[in-house]
Amino acid sequence: MKLSVGLRVSNSLSLTPQLQQAIRLLQLSSLELEQEIQSQLDSNPLLEAVEVSADGQVSEAQDNNVDYQSSETHSEYSADADFNDGRESADGAATVSLDEQMGMTRLGEDLPVDTQWDDVFSHQSTAMATPEFDEREDTRTVSDSIWSELRWQLNLTPFSPVDRIMAECIIDGIDERGYLEASLDELLEATQNQLDALDIDEEVELAELEVVLKRIQNFDPPGVGARDLSECLCLQLRALPEGTPSRLDALKMMNHHELLLVNDIPKLMRQTGLSQDELRAALTLVKSLEPYPGLKFQNNEREHQVPDVIVRKKNEHWEVQLNTDILPKLRVNSYYAGMIKRADQSEENQYLRLHMQEARNFIKSVDERHKTLLKVATCIVMHQRAFLEHGPEAMKPLILRDIALETDLHESTVSRVTTQKYLLTPRGLFELKYFFSSHVTTSAGGECSSTAIRAMIKKMIQEENIKKPLSDSALTEKLQEAGIDVARRTVAKYRESLNIASSSERKRLL
Description:
The chain is an alpha+beta fold.
């Protein structure tokens, strides 16, 4: 083999650190992004957050450090094709046409790095100059758990030492719904183990445990400690005042709850001796009860979602903008930036240079995230304008590839930017993933979204006669009359995805 030395030129793809950071930030939710920004602020002395007053102005102390004006980004785009560039919105924020949006910087390109270290880098987040919403006080409260509530009542109730240990074991066996999940045999064994661990020489019987359980079931909220739904409802009925209308009739009905589950109304009337009107009143009372008494103690903050993008109609045009309340406002600290010397190779100067580059790259990555999010959201709104106008029944078929082609992004990028990102519309708050759905062919040769079909099925069932509910075959026929060719099994699948029972279970004679 002959050895030789030569030059060869080849192309290869590589993910730069800046691009890796931009991709990672793109898939973060608003809460995760906030945590990431705080982590960067804690670790990088050259990165600082800009404090903005209630009127949208930068504080005077910070305004003297750096010029906080930037014309590189816009925060508001029109989703209508005839919304010409150069027009000003009601808030004074510049708007651009869809063609200009699609010409924005691609995420796949390498983020440029400014190497002029002596220049002060100014940055303004992709946000509106004037906040759209007034500051509101956060009135959300965190409630105690059901276990702490039960233990608080336990401490106020006189129990013997052994009974108190049994009560503690019972409370430990209650789940977050308020139901007793553990069996009595398991609770008896746990109680005996606790007594042995405390060197208490006493045997506990099952009857004693049941007595303590009855006392726990008298705690608030009513129905706590029940072993199933029927017992939970009966406990709540017994806790009602004796003069409550239909209370006794409801207790009679719950004694035969198995007939109620199978909707055997005639046999239920014979067993209880109640008339149809009495049974209807008792059923109304039972429906007013709480099936899961422990859920009200769950922390509601976990279900609270903050919109990343807001869409609204102005002057007959749909406009899309980022939520200014959650947008980070970051910049490079001008004081430390001024300490960097171009030719100085000292350890301190190298430290400042390194963190200066990291701060600039992070700011640009955050800004690129906002641009991409706004670009994708605007394209989605443009496709689903009929949904905003007429509701879910007008939803259009849409897949990731459609948005990727129009925004000149990769499908994986569109998937990242639509995951855990929420769009606030006049019709409610939706995850961006909600607007993507498969299609079903219509008899006219067109396409209909599966989301629209689900909405139509839900509407048909809401308008049906409860005494003669629509079967899956009847729903299929109605959809075919509307020009939608769909199989019965597909209708059944869509109905089950909506958590709607079958026609036999929906039938009501009362």
